[in-house]
């Protein structure tokens, strides 16, 4: 039977764009549907605009520190609309480039919502139906909203990049990546930030000693962090401000409430039930290591599968899918030792086992630490220390984990992660001559 396309991709985000482009390079006739903006979450309302806001907000500290380095920064002011609009323009530019890349790769783009109408059938929002031999679900995830009275007064990361003006006070609910990143951004921009979380921990997948350091530094910078804050309701007050209830009388007033409590796979009303694609209890598409669903010819990659919600992972999954199905090169992804970072202020970065994980899994664990003040912070008279931890398997001398908090830790960790991924030993780190003066040299000087 002749189909309109060899592959129809639903969602032009990190995973979908890569899969479409590579499948086309293998000779497949490919189409992609995008209901919002080409580029997906990372480019349009995730990694990219977030990182630019991190850069933009950090000038507050840099300008304050500049005085100790001889600069007179008197009169420096900040204008939110300038930063917001410049970031938005950069996002527009990237969106254009993504569209161009797909066009150059001869991928047909349908700029509308698509749903699955049958095993090989896609229905677009305008009613058009197209057929495809294979369908890739790459619809990503969507911010979770708590089921509490007054939740409608809150915003999510979808809206936060477009605020008309900066709030005076913000409550951020959640204790993961987005919560800590926006706590840092808002705090630097002069917003009074209260970060509330229902549990007694945050950033659970990170080394907790590193996280404790972040909590300490964040509080030092003026971020009010409240653990065990249940948030049963949010009320709008007569002056228009919001009252975030705590359940124990320690309510917090805010002008903006940002929910950052996780992202749920975007599988609602996609037609998956009709064709029998199996979902897990969180609504994620269940796939095997080759990104195959239980229905022949239907695949899924990226956040919608809820494996690891990170852009580089979605991209790799999309690429492996295209090579497997259209490139005659079946391959899977290695999920071991994925480096990750939280772009908080200061940032956290980690790869491999945390100390907690190593102690639970290995019989002999050695932990090396360096707790130091970055040279720049010393001259700036900023009493903010960095902490680097190296986790070593005592039985093999292999470095099984690296965990950093401090300036530029994400930049430093990406390079060091190669050594952890390669299974290098503590001895190999010791054998490497330090690059002085740098913060990264601490990695080869740990005693
Ligand atoms: C604020 C924020 C910051 C982040 N920062 C980082 C970071 O620093 N580093 C990192 O690695 N990751 C980060 N992430 C996560 C990263 O953005 C995601 O892991 C990544 O975008 C997942 O790619 P994807 O292809 O699975 O989905 P997405 O990029 O979300 O793409 C899915 C696309 O599908 C479209 N779509 C959905 N349903 C349909 C439909 N029915 N029809 C047509 N189109 C549809 C959507 O509009 C979207 O464009 C961040 C996320 C957020 C929210
Ligand atoms: N730097 C990065 O790589 C980066 C940045 C942003 C987002 N992301 C990705 O996007 C995903 C989503 O980010 P996120 O920050 O929304 O989620 P997250 O999974 O990092 O954190 C969610 C937090 O919310 C808490 N929580 C859950 N339900 C709650 C509720 N009802 N009330 C209060 N708290 C609740 C959880 O305990 C958790 O601490 C991340 O898991 C990550 O994979 C990555």
Automatic annotation (TrEMBL):
Keywords noted in UniProt: Disulfide bond, FAD, Flavoprotein, NAD, Nucleotide-binding, Oxidoreductase, Redox-active center
Protein origin, superkingdom: Bacteria
Entry EC no(s): 1.8.1.7
Chain residues that bind FAD: 51, 303
Boundaries of every Pyridine nucleotide-disulphide oxidoreductase dimerisation domain copy: 338-445
GO molecular function: flavin adenine dinucleotide binding; glutathione-disulfide reductase (NADPH) activity
Note accompanying the cofactor annotation: Binds 1 FAD per subunit.
Domain spans labelled FAD/NAD(P)-binding: 5-318
List of residues binding NAD(+): 174-181, 262
Matching Pfam families: Pyr_redox_2, Pyr_redox_dim
Entry annotated with the keyword Oxidoreductase: yes
Enzyme class name: oxidoreductase
Required cofactor names: FAD
Cellular component GO terms, alphabetical: cytosol
Family statement: Belongs to the class-I pyridine nucleotide-disulfide oxidoreductase family.
Protein name (record): Glutathione-disulfide reductase
Protein source organism: Sphingorhabdus pulchriflava
């Amino acid at each position: 039977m002749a189909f309109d396309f060899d592959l129809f991709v639903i969602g032009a985000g990190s995973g979908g764009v890569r899969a479409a482009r590579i499948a086309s390079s293998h000779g497949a006739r490919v189409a992609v549907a995008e209901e919002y903006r080409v580029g997906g979450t990372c480019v349009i309302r995730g990694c990219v605009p977030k990182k630019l806001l991190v850069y933009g907000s950090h000038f507050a500290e840099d300008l304050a520190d500049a005085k100790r380095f001889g600069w007179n920064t008197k009169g420096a002011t900040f204008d939110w609309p300038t930063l917001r609009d410049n970031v938005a323009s950069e996002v527009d530019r990237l969106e254009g480039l993504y569209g161009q890349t797909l066009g150059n790769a001869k991928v047909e783009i349908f700029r509308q919502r698509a749903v699955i109408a049958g095993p090989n059938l896609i229905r677009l929002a305008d009613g058009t139906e197209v057929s495809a031999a294979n369908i890739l679900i790459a619809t990503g995830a969507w911010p979770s909203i708590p089921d509490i009275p007054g939740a409608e007064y809150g915003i999510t990361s979808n809206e936060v990049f477009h605020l008309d003006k900066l709030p005076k006070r913000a409550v951020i609910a959640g204790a993961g990546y987005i919560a800590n990143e926006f706590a840092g951004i808002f705090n630097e921009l002069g917003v009074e930030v209260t970060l509330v979380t229902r549990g007694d921990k945050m950033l659970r997948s990170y080394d907790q000693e590193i996280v404790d350091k972040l909590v300490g530094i964040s509080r030092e910078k003026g971020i009010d962090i409240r653990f065990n804050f249940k948030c049963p309701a949010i009320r709008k007050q007569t002056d228009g401000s919001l009252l975030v209830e705590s359940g124990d009388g320690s309510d917090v007033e805010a002008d903006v409430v940002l929910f950052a409590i996780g992202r749920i796979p975007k599988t609602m009303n996609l037609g998956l039930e009709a064709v029998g694609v199996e979902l897990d209890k969180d609504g994620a598409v269940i796939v095997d290591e080759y990104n195959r669903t239980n229905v022949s010819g239907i695949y899924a990659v990226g956040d919608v599968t809820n494996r690891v919600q990170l852009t580089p992972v979605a991209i790799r999954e999309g690429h492996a899918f295209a090579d497997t199905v259209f490139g005659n090169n079946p391959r899977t992804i290695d999920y071991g030792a994925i480096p990750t970072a939280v772009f908080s202020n200061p940032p956290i970065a980690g790869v491999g086992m945390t100390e907690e994980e190593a102690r639970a899994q290995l019989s002999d664990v050695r932990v090396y630490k360096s707790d130091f003040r970055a040279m720049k912070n010393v001259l700036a008279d900023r009493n903010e220390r960095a902490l680097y931890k190296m986790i070593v398997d005592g039985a093999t001398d292999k470095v099984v984990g690296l965990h950093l908090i401090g300036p530029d830790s994400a930049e430093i960790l990406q390079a060091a992660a190669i050594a952890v991924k390669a299974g290098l030993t503590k001895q190999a780190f010791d054998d490497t001559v330090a690059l002085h003066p740098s913060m990264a040299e601490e990695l080869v000087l740990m005693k």
